[in-house]
Write a structure and sequence with these properties.
Number of domains of chain A: 1
Number of strands of chain A: 0
Number of helices of chain B: 25
Strand content of chain A: under 5%
Largest sheet of chain A: none
Structural class of chain A: mainly alpha
CATH class of chain A: Mainly Alpha
Radius of gyration of chain B: 30 Å
Order of helices and strands of chain B: HHEEHHHHHHHHHHHHHHHHHHHHHHH
Oligomer: heterodimer
Largest interface: A-B, 15 and 11 residues
Distance between the termini of chain A: 67 Å
Chain lengths: 104, 652
C-alpha cells in the first residue's frame, strides 16, 4: 500500500486561499485590529507555502525562512499593537477612515 | 653668459616693494591717518627707486643679460614658464624711468590728492600700478610680461574710474579696459603662436630660436604674423590707430594718473614690448612696415586733433598719442634705440606737462577748459616756468630733451623713407603749434575764468568756484615739477654723440657708421625741424597772443573741416555706430530678448512649472486613507505579477 499523503497543490491552494482572505480583509475592513489580523493571515499563508515547498523539495531553506517570518511577525505584532493603543488613546476610534491626517 | 658670474641683485625686491605698499595702504589705509598713508606710499615707491639705483650702480660690473630665477610657475611637458627676471640695458632704462618718474609723481600726488576722501585708495592703486609695471619691464618671459601687461591695464582701469561716482569716469574706465582687451587678444594669439612653434616664451629661448631664421622678405610668414599680432597688442596698450580712442577719455582720472600711466609709463609699454621683440621684427620687414605706417599715421592724425581741443588735458592726451606714434615710427624704421630714447625724454617732458596741467587745474579750482584760463603766468610763476621748459622740450627746440630724441627719430626715418620724415616734420610743426597754443591760452593774455577760493577747493570739484585768485601749488607739488623740468632740460644730452644708442647697442645691435656726406644731410634736416618748431611757436604767438580774434575767423572760414577736427574726425561716433551699437542691439534684442528670455529662461521656467503641475495631480494619491494605500499596494503587486507571468510566457 502506498503511503497516503496530501499532494503539494492542496497546500498551495490553501496557502493562496489564506493569503487572498488576508488581502480582502485588509482592503475591506475598517477596524484597525481586523486589518492587523488580516496581515497576520497573509503572513501565515505565505509561511504555509514555504513549508510545503520545503517538504516537497526536501530543502531546509524554506523552513528557515518561516522562522524569520515568525520572528518579524512577532516584532511587528508588538510594535503594531502599541501603535494601535496609541492611536486609540489619541483619537478614541479604531476606524481607519477617521485616521487620515497624514495627507497632502 | 654664465649666470654664476653675476652677483645676486635680488631684482624681485623691486616689484615686491610697491606691492607691499599697495597691500598695506589698501587693507589698513582706511583707518590710518593721511600722514601714515603718505609715509607708506612714498617709502615703498621710493625704496623701489633706491633699489633700482643700486642696481644701476652695479650695472657695469654685470655680464649681460642678467637672469634671476625667482620661483617655478608652470612646468608641463614641452613647456615651462617661471617667475624670472631679466635685466639688460633696455630693461634698465625702463626700470629707472618707471621708478624715478613714478616716485616723483607719488610725491606730487601727495599735494594734489590731499583733500580727496579716498586718499588711501589712490595711493594703494598707484603702488599697485608700480608693481605691475615693474613686473612688465623686468619679466624674463612673455607670460610674466603679460601678467604685468594685464595688471597695468587693471590699475589703469581702477585709476581712470577713481572718481567712480561720476558717470563719465566710470565709463571711461570701462572703455579703456575694453579697448585694451581687443589689443590683448592680438598679443595673446602671438604668444600662442610662439608656444606652438618655439615651445617656449622665454626671451632667451625664443630669440635664440628666431635668430637663425631667414628674413621673411619675399612672403609673409610666421614671424610676420607674430609681429603684426604683437603690434595689435601694442596698439591697444599704447593707444595707436585704430585703438587709440580710450586714451583721451582716460583723462577722466586724476591728473597724476594721467601723468604716470597715460603719459610716462604704461602707454609706453607697447613700445617697450615691440623693442624687446626686435629680433622677431627685424626678420619680418612687412610687420616693421606696418609698425612704421601705424606710428606715422597716428603721430600726424592725433596731432591734428590736438589743434582744436580746448580741454587742457585732452590736448595733452592727443599729444601723447602723437608722441607715441613717433616712437612706433622709430621702431618701424628699425631705430629701436631712438624709440626708447624718445620714450625716456617723453616720460620727462610729458610727465612734467601733465603735472603742470594738474597744477594749473589745481590753481583755478578744477577748471580744465583753456578758454576760461589765461594770464596765469603772474599767478603761478613756478608752474609757468616748468611748463615753458616742457613745451620747449616737446616742440623740439634745442638743446632740450625732446629735440634730441625727436631729431634722432626723424633722421632714422629719413634714411628709410623721406615720406616718413616728411610727415614727421609736419607733425613736429603741428606739435609745436598746439603746445604753444596751450601755453599762450593758459598763461598769457587776461584771466578769463571765475575767481576761485583761496585754499579749500578740491581739484576735481567743478563747483568749487569761490572768491580769490588762482594760486600757486604747494611745494610738494612744485619740487617734482622742478626735477622733471631739469630732466627735460638736460635729459637729451645722453643722446649726445650717440651715447644712448651705444649704450643700447648690445641689445639692438650697432648702428652703421654714417659718412660725412650724410652727416651734412643730418645737419640740414636738423635745421629744418628746428625751423618748423620755431615757426609753430611764431604762428601760435601770432594767433593766440597778438591777434586773438584771428583763430575764430579762421575756424569760421574753414567751416565743416574745422568742425570735423573739433569732433575728432567723428571717430568715436563711427566706432559707436559700427561696433558698439550693433553689439548692444544684438545683445539686447537677440541674446537677451530672444535667446535668454525665450529659450533659456523659458526652458527653466517650463521645467519648473511642469514639475509643479504633475506633482499637483499626483499628490492626490496620498489621501491619508490606509485602505487606499492598501489598494495601491495591491494594484502594484498585481502589475508585478502580471509582468512576471507575461515574461514567463514569453521566455517559454
Amino acid at each position: 500500500m502506498v503511503p497516503s499523503y496530501v499532494p503539494l497543490s492542496y497546500y498551495l491552494l490553501l496557502s493562496g486561499f489564506l493569503f487572498a482572505c488576508g488581502v480582502v480583509g485588509f482592503l475591506i475592513k475598517r477596524n484597525i485590529i481586523t486589518i492587523f489580523m488580516s496581515i497576520e493571515l497573509m503572513l501565515n499563508g505565505v509561511n504555509l507555502s514555504f513549508v510545503a515547498f520545503a517538504a516537497h523539495w526536501h530543502a531546509l531553506a524554506g523552513q528557515v525562512f518561516v522562522f524569520f517570518v515568525m520572528v518579524v511577525a512577532a516584532a511587528e505584532a508588538a510594535v503594531g499593537l502599541a501603535i494601535i493603543i496609541a492611536v486609540y488613546r489619541t483619537r478614541e476610534t479604531l476606524n481607519v477612515d477617521q485616521v487620515n491626517l497624514l495627507k497632502l | 653668459m654664465n649666470p654664476n658670474l653675476n652677483p645676486n641683485l635680488n631684482l624681485w625686491v623691486i616689484p615686491i616693494l610697491p606691492l607691499a605698499g599697495a597691500a598695506i595702504n589698501g587693507f589698513l589705509g582706511k583707518k590710518a591717518s593721511r600722514a601714515g598713508v603718505t609715509a607708506v606710499a612714498l617709502f615703498f615707491s621710493g625704496a623701489a627707486f633706491a633699489w633700482a639705483l643700486l642696481v644701476a650702480a652695479r650695472f657695469s660690473s654685470l655680464s649681460l643679460p642678467y637672469h634671476e630665477f625667482f620661483a617655478h610657475w608652470i612646468r608641463i611637458t614641452g613647456f615651462s614658464a617661471d617667475f624670472a627676471f631679466y635685466l639688460d640695458q633696455l630693461s634698465l632704462v625702463m626700470l629707472l624711468v618707471v621708478t624715478g618718474v613714478g616716485f616723483l609723481i607719488h610725491v606730487y600726488s601727495v599735494g594734489y590728492m590731499w583733500d580727496d576722501p579716498s586718499y588711501y585708495r589712490f595711493f594703494s592703486y598707484l603702488n599697485l600700478f608700480m608693481f605691475f609695471m615693474l613686473t612688465l619691464v623686468l619679466a624674463g618671459n612673455y607670460l610674466q610680461m603679460f601678467i604685468g601687461w594685464e595688471g597695468v591695464g587693471l590699475a589703469s582701469y581702477l585709476l581712470i574710474g577713481f572718481w567712480f561716482t561720476k558717470d563719465s569716469a566710470a565709463s571711461a574706465g570701462k572703455k579703456a579696459f575694453i579697448v585694451n582687451r581687443i589689443g590683448d587678444f592680438g598679443f595673446l594669439i602671438a604668444l600662442f603662436l610662439l608656444i606652438k612653434h618655439f615651445g617656449s616664451l622665454n626671451f632667451d629661448q625664443v630669440f635664440g630660436a628666431v635668430v637663425p631664421l631667414p628674413v621673411e622678405t619675399a612672403d609673409a610668414g610666421l614671424l610676420t604674423a607674430i609681429g603684426i599680432l604683437l603690434m595689435v597688442g601694442a596698439c591697444g596698450k599704447s593707444a595707436q590707430i585704430p585703438l587709440y580712442v580710450w586714451l583721451p577719455d582716460a583723462m577722466e582720472g586724476p591728473t597724476p594718473v594721467s601723468a604716470l600711466i597715460h603719459a610716462a609709463t604704461m602707454v609706453t609699454a607697447g613700445v617697450y614690448m615691440v623693442s624687446r621683440s626686435h629680433v622677431i621684427f627685424e626678420r619680418a620687414p612687412f610687420a616693421l612696415t606696418v609698425v612704421a605706417i601705424i606710428g606715422t599715421l597716428t603721430a600726424f592724425f592725433a596731432a591734428t586733433i590736438g589743434i582744436a581741443q580746448t580741454d587742457i588735458k585732452k590736448v595733452l592726451a592727443y599729444s601723447t598719442i602723437s608722441q607715441l606714434g613717433y616712437m612706433f615710427m622709430a621702431c618701424g624704421v628699425g631705430a629701436f634705440s631712438a624709440g626708447i630714447f624718445h620714450l625716456m625724454t617723453h616720460a620727462f617732458f610729458k610727465g612734467l606737462l601733465f603735472l603742470g596741467a594738474g597744477s594749473v587745474i589745481h590753481a583755478v579750482g578744477g577748471e580744465q577748459d583753456m578758454r576760461k584760463m589765461g594770464g596765469l603766468k603772474s599767478f603761478i610763476p613756478v608752474t609757468f616756468g616748468t611748463m615753458l621748459i616742457a613745451t620747449l622740450a616737446i616742440a623740439g627746440v634745442p638743446p632740450l630733451a625732446g629735440f634730441w630724441s625727436k631729431d634722432e627719430i626723424l633722421w632714422k626715418a629719413y634714411q628709410v623713407s623721406p615720406v616718413y620724415w616728411g610727415i614727421g616734420v609736419v607733425t613736429a610743426f603741428i606739435t609745436s603749434f598746439y603746445m604753444f597754443r596751450l601755453l599762450f591760452m593758459t598763461f598769457f593774455g587776461d584771466y578769463r575764468g571765475a575767481k576761485v577760493d583761496a585754499h579749500g577747493h578740491s581739484s576735481h570739484g567743478h563747483d568749487a568756484h569761490g572768491r580769490g585768485e588762482p594760486h600757486e601749488s604747494p611745494m610738494v607739488m612744485l619740487v617734482p615739477l622742478m626735477i622733471l623740468a631739469l630732466l627735460s632740460l638736460v635729459g637729451g644730452f645722453v643722446g649726445w654723440g650717440n651715447h644712448f644708442e651705444n649704450f643700447l647697442a648690445p641689445v639692438f645691435g650697432t648702428a652703421e657708421a654714417v659718412d660725412s656726406a650724410s652727416h651734412s644731410t643730418e645737419l640740414l634736416l636738423m635745421g629744418v625741424s628746428v625751423a618748423v618748431a620755431l615757426f609753430g611757436w611764431w604762428l601760435a604767438y601770432l594767433l593766440y597772443c597778438k591777434r586773438p580774434e584771428l583763430p575764430q575767423k579762421i575756424a569760421d572760414s574753414l567751416g565743416s573741416l574745422y568742425q570735423t577736427v573739433v569732433h575728432k574726425y567723428y571717430i568715436d561716433e563711427l566706432y559707436a555706430a559700427v561696433f558698439v551699437k550693433p553689439l548692444i542691439d544684438g545683445s539686447m534684442r537677440i541674446l537677451w530678448q530672444d535667446v535668454d528670455r525665450k529659450i533659456i529662461d523659458a526652458a527653466v521656467n517650463d521645467a519648473g512649472d511642469g514639475a509643479k503641475h504633475v506633482s499637483d495631480e499626483v499628490r492626490h494619491m496620498q489621501s491619508g486613507n490606509i485602505r487606499s494605500y492598501a489598494g495601491w499596494i495591491s494594484a502594484g503587486a498585481g502589475v508585478v505579477i502580471a509582468l512576471m507571468i507575461w515574461m514567463w510566457t514569453k521566455a517559454r
